[in-house]
Input
Amino acid sequence: MALQRVEFIETKIDAVRDCPGTKNHICCGYKTIDLIEGCPLSCSYCILKHYIKSDVIKVNRNIDHVINQVDSIIENDKSHIWRFGTGELSDSLVFDRRYGLNRPLIEYFGEKKRALLELKSKWAQIDHLIPFLNRFTIISFSLSPQAIIEKEEKRSSPLYKRLKAAKKAQDRGCFIGLHLDPIIIYEGFEKDYYYLVEDIGRILDLDRVIWISLGLLRFPSRMMDTFIKEKRRNLLYGEFIRGEDGKYRYLKSERIRVYKMLYDLLKNKNNGLFIYLCMERQDVWRESIGLTIEDTEALTGLFDKRIRYLYGGEL
Ligand code: SF4
Output
């Protein structure tokens, strides 16, 4: 992995925020915890480098302050079972073995038993965390076909290692999450995604997958120039439209087709899977997976239902 300078900060600014979502698209009511700003994995499509201008990766070591903020949200707003994640401005696990940032959070959520912590990653190193994991931590992996990992996610763990690490977390008694995001349309992608779903079904216990998100590639307009300059053929293969939020997305008819294809493949593996779309419009939800979701509040309610179903009276 290329070395980027890491700077430690002890900040008292708010590190816990509502996931920013995007204009006129349905969000899932997620809370993000900013422990690290910047990511050394440098996926080709990552929007972070366009938002974070600095090459220095900032690591917030004021975990006590972060935990106080999380606690205040859980105590003051009991309208939902809140889901918190550290994977918004970096990868949740990439620095974890070196800096041990997640362990105090895992322990806090395990004692609190009132909300869930999601660690979202493409870095399959979890052995050091296994002894501390509890049912209130969701280990999640973003998954792509190996062909895409080799070209667009070069520094991250290969697919089989991500699936193996997810299985270890399941064997430890945790639920896991899966994120097929970004889904990329390239020549022959249907076949590769078919085999990806086959691998998921073969290696993982699907009854212990708490949620699966689907999100097709989307990016701010200025990234288009970078993709053209870098000759990112995989990323430029599909047809795009620029949305109200200024981001490029695949054409709506394509998005509906691909979501439906993946939804059906996954549901055929296990009909009980909870599958949601990341930052999509109401009509795309309805036409691809047949669900009428009015707004963020309605989707957050569906998550509550899912969590109560799996955890019973525990949460
Ligand atoms: S792992 Fe995630 S945060 Fe890191 S570069 Fe890739 S997309 Fe960006």
